[in-house]
Amino acid sequence: MRLLAPLIGRRARLRWLHLIIGGALLMPYFLVGTVLVSMAGGGAGLFSSVPAQLAAFACALPMVAVSGFFPLVRPLSVAAARALCGVPPALLADGPARTRQARVRTTAWFTLHLGLGGIVSGITLALTPFALAVMGLPFSAALRDSWLAAGSSVLVEPWALALAPLAGLAMLVAMALVAAGAGELLARRVPVLLGPTPEDRLAAAERRAADLAVRNRLARELHDSVGHALSAVTLQAGAARRVLDRDPEFVRRALTAIEETTRRTVGELDAVVGLLRRDEEPGDGDAAYGPGLDALDGLLAHCGVPVAYEREGDPGDPRVVVPVVSREAYRIVQEGLSNVLRHGGGGTSPVRLLIAVRERELEIVMENPPGERPAVVRPGGGRGLRGIAERAALLGGRSEAGPYEGTDGSTWRLAVRLPLTAHGEERS
């Protein structure tokens, strides 16, 4: 049975079925070809004439090729090839043929599939009953009489009858060999003709890059929102614990700040998790969530550090600062405050925050005295400054962070400049 597997094994049978399907799809084109040949030759003896049938077959193939240019031919062909040709699914392209090269390859495949399918189907339909009839000659007088009536007296000679079963079996084996060879040829051509074109690979790479960008953006949102909240809550809880017996009013304010911070963060966390739970890939509209600079007062009121906030212009006005820039600026301020909480002396050092709307850019400057050690230690460190730099770069802006010698002495300074428009958005 192993020797016969290439001819009658499961893969061979599926490929044979694939060819039969191709022959069935060829029939409408073949019938139109017979009409054209009949009109050209007067319609005499069309189905009894092998040259006329070959001419109809030749007329059908150009029509098949034209049909192959329709975009939906490729996904249908890919689905059939994946199920029946035994080709790894990763080697085949997904989706309709959109580019010229993809359409040319698809029509070449469609023509090859239907052409070989028509030949194999014709051989299967014609040769199978003939071979079985030949094999049955020694055992059926009715078959011998029908062959004599048809004028084939040679096949009823004693020597011919003795060889008839072997001849019929040889015909079936030859038919199986032809079908297996045609199926193997199609299977070898599938990755070339139905595989991804360079344009498909580029589009797939762009989709992967877009998906990675979305994941990175969501990771930054989670890091900045949750990281800031945990830092603020840890600081407020620690301060409240230290003065619990001496200053109940301070403890009350700290608990209120913890409540407001966690409530706000839970809402932001729900928004991000909602995006992650969606089946479809997030689009542009999905980025339109999250607080902007108009919600900055609430953040500063419960951030856990004293902030001297100055602003020039109206950064909270969406007509001045487009929403995407406003949201990213809010996250940058939030992460800057988280860095102050972690590294700025336990939240007791005052912070100076300036947000200024310039002619073409939004400027964010945050200064605080450098702390001696982190107030909130996180194993492995954080990604705060790197995340701020990534946010600024994605909008076409820039950021700087480090020690700064100002008029009040040495400070730690974070300066970020963002364009007032980003990703094609215009101020109204």
TrEMBL record:
One GO term describing the cellular component: membrane
Segments forming domain Signal transduction histidine kinase subgroup 3 dimerisation and phosphoacceptor: 215-280
A Pfam family annotated for this UniProt entry: HisKA_3
Membrane-spanning intervals of the chain: 16-40, 52-73, 108-139, 159-180
Broad class of enzyme this protein falls into: transferase
One Gene Ontology term of the molecular function aspect: phosphorelay sensor kinase activity
Keyword list, A-Z: ATP-binding, Kinase, Membrane, Nucleotide-binding, Phosphoprotein, Transferase, Transmembrane, Transmembrane helix, Two-component regulatory system
Catalyzed reactions per annotation: ATP + protein L-histidine = ADP + protein N-phospho-L-histidine
InterPro entries: HATPase_C_sf (IPR036890), Sensor_HK_TwoCompSys (IPR050482), Sig_transdc_His_kin_sub3_dim/P (IPR011712)
EC numbers, comma separated: 2.7.13.3
Organism superkingdom: Bacteria
Name of this protein: histidine kinase
Source organism of the structure: Streptomyces arboris
